[in-house]
Amino acid sequence: MDVDPVSSQEPAAETEEKWRAIAAEKKQKQLDSIPKEWLITPPPEDRINVLDVPSECGLLTSREMEITNEVDVAALLAKLASGEWSSVEVTTAFYKRAVIAHQVVNCLTEIFVERALARAAELDEYLKTNGKPIGPLHGLPISLKDQFTMKGLETVMGWVSWIGKVSESDCVLVELLYQCGAVPFVRTNVPQTLFWGETHNSVFGRTLNPHNRNLTPGGSSGGEGALIAMRGSPLGVGTDIGGSVRIPAAFCNIYSLRPSYERLPYQGARNTGEGQESISSTIGPMSNSLSGIKVFVKAILDMKPWLKDPLVPKMPWNEPAYQLVEHGNGVGLCFGFMVDDGLFKPQPPLYRAMEMTKKALIAAGHTVIEWEPKKHLEIFINCNSIYFADDGENLRRECEATDEPLLQTMHPEELLVELDDASMPYERHVVRDLGHLTTYELWELHKEKRQLRKEYLDHWMGTVERTGTGRPVDAIICPAAPYPAPLHGHNRNAWYTTIWNALDYTVAVLPVTYVDPKLDVQHPPHKFRNHEDQWIYESYDPSSYEGCPIGLQVVGQRQEEEAVIAIAEIVERALKASPS
Amino acid sequence: MDVDPVSSQEPAAETEEKWRAIAAEKKQKQLDSIPKEWLITPPPEDRINVLDVPSECGLLTSREMEITNEVDVAALLAKLASGEWSSVEVTTAFYKRAVIAHQVVNCLTEIFVERALARAAELDEYLKTNGKPIGPLHGLPISLKDQFTMKGLETVMGWVSWIGKVSESDCVLVELLYQCGAVPFVRTNVPQTLFWGETHNSVFGRTLNPHNRNLTPGGSSGGEGALIAMRGSPLGVGTDIGGSVRIPAAFCNIYSLRPSYERLPYQGARNTGEGQESISSTIGPMSNSLSGIKVFVKAILDMKPWLKDPLVPKMPWNEPAYQLVEHGNGVGLCFGFMVDDGLFKPQPPLYRAMEMTKKALIAAGHTVIEWEPKKHLEIFINCNSIYFADDGENLRRECEATDEPLLQTMHPEELLVELDDASMPYERHVVRDLGHLTTYELWELHKEKRQLRKEYLDHWMGTVERTGTGRPVDAIICPAAPYPAPLHGHNRNAWYTTIWNALDYTVAVLPVTYVDPKLDVQHPPHKFRNHEDQWIYESYDPSSYEGCPIGLQVVGQRQEEEAVIAIAEIVERALKASPS
């Protein structure tokens, strides 16, 4: 398990030594920031599933286990608001569990126990003095992806060259979380560049999937995914430009929401390709329940984030939208089901998860039609051309300062699988060799993008002819990836998620089932559409996925955050009520 | 009066002849599209003010005069809805007046009388059959800037190379106008490139200001400005990327609204620099009353434009926002007044208009504080660098097809005034010699832009300390230009309007007063900040402006369309109630 990139390396040349030394020093500082009494005896390296380590290691009291096992964030907040559980004890409990998680899946970056507990104590004092909570997230510890700057802390975001740069202010999200009464308490790991569906960088190393440490937790918000799956945080915040809150949620058995561009405030947070406004990264919550997702979105919107972030639309939490008034009040919905996008046929477990969901929804009184993918390849090519329109210039500049190499794979052996067929639309490389586009060329891509978005919108609206509800489909259900969490270095395809970034649709992910090698037998071979499609088919090995969770996406239209949360709740209730 | 660019030219070389011939043919077709019986004996060329030509020429009946003199669009719609006035007679009346206007100020592009009257007749038939109007704009003739494509018509937009290209579909705005029951009836003139605050191109020639034909009506929606000022249209639609609906409104004595990016649907309309998404052009209504502005915005938003245009935010008409619930219900507002942006000191009439407005607002129970401009020069440089980040590539390509020259001035004699002082931030050239930026360079500009927008937002929010209302300032009042409508070729400064495009604030323009050479005496000279500032000072000649209107801007925050309309109504009521 390649947790630490530093120790496992060969002796290196002088410049290489330099960046490695900087990274190693940071990693050591991180280790030093863990209270000694919270260090555990690590489980054997070959232990695959580590979800039970927190309960087994003996570090958590039974009350701390009770607190951290509460996945209903609204219930947790009620206990914090009433004082039944103090913020100090809740924060301590989650902090201990987060640090345990970190020792088995390497999910954290910044650890600042004293600061978080001091904040929690202030909140407890406030409650005692005033007899009421300070805000809607009173006392709740919240984990943050390593992009959300906090005054006095570094924001390394996986770049060696960012080590030692201490933020002078909080980003707007953190400001609002403080106003809401939350306790930002850890920051979590990311892949170098953020442009991978895995989580590995040259500073903090690789994050592992707690369901199976041979597998990736996904990325780029993979630190959050692994941490929350370990119940080391009740609520976390990631970001998503191509699936980065959804892939970890699907691979780690948790919930997430990818909101529309700018609905939640990004101002002041660090990012890759800052200034790329064509297909914006968005902030999204991740949690062990939809309750956590809803609580977060409502709390932030109630703070009027547009008064602090000039890009956030002036759209308050819309309760009628959450009540699904535009979707038949949630009764008799019609879902569009897309198991296969026509480019990359998913592996068998995804078919079973989709079928289970379909049956559950029909049993709950909803209807289902097939969702026909439209121009997904064209959208993919346009979108990917935009992401790398600067030919990776912004990435190379981060590397240049320290000679840190730009990773070209997430594979533990840094083996670059060559995929050179010209018909193959997807590569594993971060930087594609498209050349550095001029502004005019970028504007031409924008024209094409707008046209593709228009066609897709018309396509969606056109389903009104087929739903029988008098409305277009209320949501689309589809895989979040064409496979369950793959082996490290093997998550090469993010197109089931990125399509919705390109179209700016609102998407929730929810857990559906687990891989079952007995049920999920290989499909007969189909006519392969491209090398990637063939690779996905051929690499299916159910035994490697044992116990691996599967989540699906619930896709609503643009700026339908409230409705998508409500529809995801409906899907979840249907699944829970379903005999399968 | 250089109305026709073709006839007044010297004999030209062969390639030049070609594009001139194409343009001349189109211009002749336009002339042929006017019903012969609507041709008038033109007034003498030296007649400056032509506003009374419609009433004097004898072409309009008294009922047609009554119809076209009704500036309250809601009242007009009520008469159309009741059948008191038929759509055919209203459309005929405005069409005749529009054609009269065209003959004296050259404001139209596409003229299609039969088609519009057939549409009006259908609506009359609908009302007769169903006893109710078909939609909120039932029977209303609406003029459109020459960007809004209509099936079966050309959209020339001032480019010779676009002549003969017939649209295969309506743009989304036109689709929605049809659904609302409107009668799109003429299209209106623009400057080549749309990037001028005047209105002149090589196909349709120059549009004149009906208040004083020696002056420009402004631009780029100058055809609309001149037409509506002549009461040749009750309601028009322009677009605005740097002041293009506000400059014509201020120069022509009418009302307009510049909404936030994408609030109204642009999908399918043609544009300059299509694909430039950094600082978006927006669609805005223009009318002889705020009633027209409100009716249009509400009608379009009630049609849920986000179901047809993927970029339009899902924000319905917000009645509580229009009732100013976030602005003290409209009682005791506090305005920020900025007469001088610190870069370009306005000419004397602007000071008087601002002073009149201030007194009127105070008399009406509102308060006023000074608005301090913040980083206007930095924002200007960032914004202008973005507009021309492709070094005019998109403009040159439109010219190349026919060898039509890219105009470098709007001056009738094509005299380029050299402004070569390096300290001078503004030039008259459309294309600045910044070079063609790479994507990375553009993204760097976006980062800077976001930071500047954040600083300005914080600046606005910070006024809460000074207003005495418990709120930040409710709106800013400022000039729409540092001078009244200037002589043709002299409108070189759009920075009083463009600042708000860069910040994406919502802005209404309303008429305030007229230049009065007795009252508006020259200021003593100040320390000039740059050549432009000096030029503005030195070029002040009150006698050239006689009878020239002055409008001001009412600036609200982003996505405050409803509130800004309501606040503009308050300003207007205060001005009407004020003794001055």
TrEMBL record, chains A, B:
It is an enzyme of class 3 (hydrolase). Pfam families: Amidase (PF01425). Residues 89-564 form the Amidase domain. The active site is at K145 (charge relay system), S220 (charge relay system), S244 (acyl-ester intermediate). The keyword Hydrolase applies. Substrate binds at L194, S220, I241, G242, G243, S244. GO terms for molecular function: amidase activity. Its EC number is 3.5.1.4. It catalyses: a monocarboxylic acid amide + H2O = a monocarboxylate + NH4(+). InterPro entries: Amidase_CS (IPR020556), Amidase_dom (IPR023631), AS_sf (IPR036928). It comes from the Eukaryota. SUPFAM superfamilies: Amidase signature (AS) enzymes. Keywords: Hydrolase. Belongs to the amidase family. This is amidase. It comes from Botryobasidium botryosum (strain FD-172 SS1). The lineage of its organism: Eukaryota, Fungi, Dikarya, Basidiomycota, Agaricomycotina.
